[in-house]
From TrEMBL:
Coiled-coil region(s): none
SMART domains: S_TKc
GO molecular function, one term: ATP binding
One GO CC term, this protein: cytoplasm
Compositional bias annotation for Low complexity: 384-397
Region (Disordered): 303-413
Protein name in UniProt: Serine/threonine-protein kinase SBK1
Keyword flag DNA damage: no
Domain of life: Eukaryota
Amino acid sequence: MSSSPLGSRGNMDILEELQLIAAQNLERLEVNKYYEVIRELGKGTYGKVDLVIHKIRGTKMALKFLRKKTTKLKSFLREYSISLYLSPCPFIINMFGIAFETDDYYVFAQEYALSGDLFDIIPPQVGLPETVAKRCVHQVAIALDYLHCKKLVHRDVKPENILIFDRECRKVKLSDFGMTRRAGSPVKRVSGTIPYTAPELCDTSRHEGFCVDYSTDVWAFGVLLFCMLTGNFPWEKALPTDSFYQEFTRWQRRRTGTVPSQWRRFTEQALRMFRRLLSVEQDRRCSVKEVFGYFSHSWMLDGDSNGNGGGGGERERERGGGGVRVEGDGSSTSSSSGEEDEEMLVERMKQQTLSPLSPPVSVERGTGGTKVGMTESGGGHHFVSVSTTSSVPSTNSYDRMPRDSNSNQPPGRILVATPIEICV
Ligand code: AMP
């Protein structure tokens, strides 16, 4: 057994080491001296993300600014080090190894995703073409599996955190590791839920803390899949008071054979996959990599009127798959129907950018009494669910989910907040 300093350093936790090194090397810089700021890419209560050009190298980068007033140095170092640690995965955002501080901010540099994030390209009430959704899902699943193999839990899986690197949405990467913690870490909930929040975390009657677990990522990943394929959230909150959720759990727990109205657009195989990903009992939820077993099946039913190019149901199955071919490196290419889907997607992206104020549209779907409609207001696009199954119709409209709970959101923009959990 070696007792050399090298031996003991080898055993030292790599994440801790990365944080210590980052802390030691954290310089104070003036942003404008080294970077030309092009435009803001995103912002939140935490701070902002700016597109910049490195003045010496000419490289485009995304600089993430975390406000010192609201971010502890420890949290900044953790987010930076985790991002750096995970960046070798081809489907996780890459880093430049640059971290510094200004008077007001802690800052780190990431590669720039030129097509923004997934939230902006999911057509509300329509969803992405199946081939495109599958390709994204495949890449996100590889990223999450990588993270889970490293014993980390992302804890904020949602479209806003999936960045797109080309116009055709061929390459996406997982980003934002601000909430990421080691599996098994004790945390306690402070407040708030979003549609991606797993039921065990929504239960406000549970005041005790809980341990960070992979299964919460799996749940969020299941909700994400639903959003990508339909352009709707399946529910507002995974709570019995939410009629959409209640309908789903009755079917999920086999109390009824009737597939909930919002879920009738999926094939049997897709429903089986959702049942596994969205198991209400945390310990019965499958792992993220189980989705790899479902890619050869079609997910959307034939004749799906949402025009999402789900393409083909039975026909596609006969052709031998859902239109996505997975390459050795984990990326995927699409068949010819996939190419048509992509053209449709690019067209839609153009339309969304050009006409953000298109008139509201309502589509009656199925016999279950659930209507889904598209509304666009205030120049942004929303996912909307309108239930007519309950006596009092519930209208859930969401815009981007903030990273932090913030009661001062502009009215009508953000209705629900991300849970904030603090390590204890
Ligand atoms: P974040 O707080 O890291 O989730 O960033 C907020 C928003 O900024 C994201 O939802 C993206 O739209 C945008 N953004 C963040 N990082 C990047 C990046 N590396 N490239 C392009 N856009 C980004």
